[in-house]
Fold this sequence. Notes:
481 residues; 9% strand; three-stranded antiparallel sheet; mainly alpha; two-stranded parallel sheet; 19 helices; Arc Repressor Mutant, subunit A; elongated; RNA-binding; Rossmann fold
Amino acid sequence: MTTPKSSSIRTRFAPSPTGALHGGTIRTTVFAWLIAKQGQGKFLLRIEDTDQKREVAGAVQNIMDSLRWLGLGWDEGPDKGGEYAPYTQSERLDIYKQWAQKLYESGKAYADPYSTEELQTLRETAQAAKKPFLYRDYRPENPPAWDGSQPLRIRLEPKSYTWHDGVMGDITMGPEMIDDFIIIKSDGFPTYNFCHIIDDYLMKISHVTRSQEFLSSIPKFLAAHEVMGIPSPINLTVPPVLDETGKRKLSKRLGAKPILAYRELGYLPSAMLNFLATIGWNDGTEQEIFSIDELIEKFKIERIQKSGGIFDEQRLLWLNGAHIRRLPLDELYAHVGDFWPAEANGANDDYKKQVLSLVHERLKFFAELPDLTRFFFAEPTVQNIVENIGANKQLRKLDVAERDRLMSATQTTLADSDFSQADLELKLRALVDALEVKPGVLFSLIRVVITGSNVAPGLFETLATLGKETSLKRLSVTLAE
RNA sequence: GGCCCCUUCGUCUAGUGGUCCAGGACAUCAGGUUCUCAUCCUGAAGAUCGCGGGUUCGAACCCCGCAGGGGUCACCA
C-alpha cells in the first residue's frame, strides 16, 4: 500500500455568486480548507456563475472578502490564476460545450423536446400521485437533432450505486435516484450538475466537500462520471448548520447574518474559525479552544459528525472572548483597528494600548470598545454622573453633605499622590480607614465621578491611566441636584 | 409518497458491550476572590442516551421495528 503524495490533495470552494456568504456555507469551506492545509495540498476558489439570473452584483467580492477575513486563503482562483485557469465558469463555457458536443455526438446526451410547461404538467401529475418524478420515464424515443435551442440531457443508466462517503460512510441508493439531468440549458449555459464534474476532474480535485442537500444527487454524479469516462473524487458530505430554532438550515432568506457582519461587530477570525470548525467536529478530547494551527494539526475527516448542529451565537461570543484574552496586547491592539470611540481620535498609541490593557479581559467583541473606554478620552457629563449615582444602591443613600465630605477628602489626598498605581492604592485605602466608610462606598463614588459609569476597570488602574491632572479635574466637578 | 441522512443535558459534544444510575464545554443559578463589571476558582441544577422489541451474564454502544426531524425528487446551486 502506497501512501498518496500529500501534494495530491486538492480541495475547493465553489460558490455561486448569489449573495453574501454566511456561516453555513463557510463551515463546509472551513473543512475543505483544513483538509488541504493539513495534507499540504492546495485549496482552490472557483466561481460557479452559470445562472446569470440569480447572480448578485458584488457577490464575488463578498466571497473573497469573507475568505480573506477568515484567513482561508486560496492557492488558485479567479483573481490569481493557476495551472487550470480560468477559475470562473462563465469563462470556461467552451470547455463545457466541447464535452457536451462529444456526449451528444456519441449518443450519450440528447436534446429534450419538451417545453417547460409540458414538463411541469408531468411533474405535477407525478407529485399528485405521490410518486417521484423521473424524466427518463418520458424519455423521447427519437429525440430531435440538438440545435442549441433545446436543453441537452445526459443519458444515464438507471442502476443501483454503492459508494463510500468520507463522512457518511457506505451509502447505497437505488436506480430511482438516477435520472437524465440537463447538462446544457436552452439558454446555452451549462448546469452546475455538469460543469462541476468537469471542473473537479480537470482541476484534479481529490476531495469534494458538499453540504447535505447534495447527498441524494451523488448517484447521478457517479453515473455521469461513468458516462463521461472519468474517475470520481472522494465525496465528503458535511452535515447542515442549523439556525437558532434547530429546525432549519442556516439560510440567508431566513435571516442568517453574512459572515462579514461578524467582522463589523469586531469578532476575531480565529474565534470564528474555531467556532465554525467545532460545529460538527471535535478532536475527541475535552479541548474547546483551538488556534488555527491546532485546527490544521488536529482536524480529522473521520471525526466529522453526521448530524446537524446549531449556530449558537452564545458559544461564539464566549469563544471570541476567550480568543481575545489569549491574544498578547500588541496583537490585540492591531486587531482592534478602528473600533475605538470617536473621542479617541488623536490619542496616542501608548495611551490607547494602556487603556486596552485595562479592558482586555472584559472585552467580548470590539464593538463594545467605545462604551467600555469612552471616558478615558472624554470627560463624563454631569448628567451621566448624577444618573449613575441614582442607579447605585450604595451611593443614592448618601446625603449631599456626606458626599461632599468624601469628595473633598479624596481631592486633598490625591493631590499628594504621585499617581502610581501602588501609591493610589496605598493612599485611598488609608483614606477609607480615616473616613470610616466602606471601601465600596468611597471607591464607587470616585469611580462614578471620574468615569460617569458604575462599570469600569479597577479604580487604581483607571486613575493611574487617566493621570493626575485629568483625575483631579474630574474630581472637582460640581454636581447640581 | 419514493429514496437518503439524522436522533446523548436548552446548545456544542465525549462515548464503538462492563471502568457510564453517562463525562466535558457554553448558557443558567449559587458561592468564593474583589472597589463595580469582567476574569479566575468552587459548586448546583440539567440527558429515564427518540420509542418499542431482541441478542447478551451485561447495551447509549450490536440487530429488528416504529416514531420524529431534515434533505431530495428544478432549464438553482
